[in-house]
Amino acid sequence: MSAFKQFTTKDIIFTPFIADKGFNYSGSEITGSDVGINIYWGLNVSYNSPQDIGTGFVFTQSVSNAYNSSKQLYYTNFLTQSRGDNVPTRSLVPGATQADDEYVGNINSPRFENYLQSTLTQSRFIATGSYPAVSLSNAGTLTTISIPQKLFGETIVPTSFRFQYKGTSRFDNMVITDDGDGNLISQSLDLGTDTSSSVVVGNIFYSQGIAVLTSGSNGSNATIPNVGKDTGTDGNSDINNVNIQFSSSLTIYERQYKCTILENEFGNSTNPTILKNEGGSGSFNMEYQDFATGSYFSPYVTCVGLYNENTELIAVGKLSFPAPISQFTDTTIIVNFDL
After folding, report:
1. Which domain holds residue 275?
2. What is the mean pLDDT of the chain?
3. pLDDT in tens, 188-199
């Protein structure tokens, strides 16, 4: 009898499934040590400007960095028109030698990735005016909401994001949700010159846990409040009026090991109590108890150990009750666990 038995490929099954979990945080919970959601106020100002102050709750950075980071990552193809700025590029026609290579044509294509969230034509807008600006709708401001990966897992579930901010003198209640295509839509928001109840006010990037609220992102004169400023910049901490909801998504792999004991395997027990001297120290007497020598004797299995290629124990599965090993048919024990 062997103490170990090798698995074959047909004995091991890995089954992936996606697990979703909803989160709902309000007030100081948002920036707590076990949550760590950060809200940044971004300004289009020079890095050495007196207005380049710090922003953020969990980690602090300058307002110019907050603005330029979001601009570079998500809006560099959308600086002059909301549906993207394509740049002309040339195509290389290889020749027989490098000297014979030829560049021809003017092909318009995006210059940057910008993390598009849908195969639909994306419409994005970011205000690029210097701050402060004469026209508030053109002022280069934005708010970035950063959710740590420990919360959103692999991605935020589309249509699950909800941001609510209420109870200030500037506006009574703002509710923003995502449409599943990467757009943030305002709900019941008074935008002054635009009274529409459904206005695009920013974008969400599901796989990065980032939501960006931009001013005037519907292309009109409407301007959303500077949420980043109102929630903590300039010493004005209004985080208690914020509520953030979303669902995370994480792929979990269920591992199934089929441990099959053939009818002629594991017929002896390794329990020392079946020895007459119980395996006492210094004794080489391996005589079995009388009850263990009959043909009717069948050992029981109480647990299954899984070992790696170095015979190191890595997992133990215990049965709820001892199960006899059959002498006439195969015995199969299924071990399931998730990682």
Report:
1. 262-338
2. 80
3. 554 444 444 567
- DSSP lists the bridge partners of residue 88 as 108
Domain co-membership, 212 together with 180: yes
- Confidence band, pLDDT 50/70/90 cuts, at residue 288: confident
Query: Integer distance in angstroms from the first to the last C-alpha of the chain?
Result: 32
pLDDT at 203 over 80: yes
In a domain, 219, yes or no: yes
Euclidean distance between CA atoms 2 and 77, whole angstroms? 65
Name, in order, each residue with C-beta under 8 angstroms of 80's C-beta and a sequence gap of 6 or more.
none
CB atoms within 10 A of CB 38: 22
Q: What percentage of residues in the chain have a pLDDT greater than 90? A: 19
234 and 317 inside one domain: no
**Cβ neighbours for 151, distance < 8 A, ≥ 6 positions apart:** 23, 35, 36, 37, 209, 248
Domain assignment present for 257 = no
Question: Does some domain include residue 12?
Answer: no
In angstroms, what is the C-alpha Rg of the chain?
32
Do 269 and 243 share a domain, yes or no?
no
Following DSSP, what letter does each residue of 96-146 receive, concatenated?
SSGGG-EEEEEEEE-SS-TT---SSPP------B-SS-SSGGGB-EEEEEE
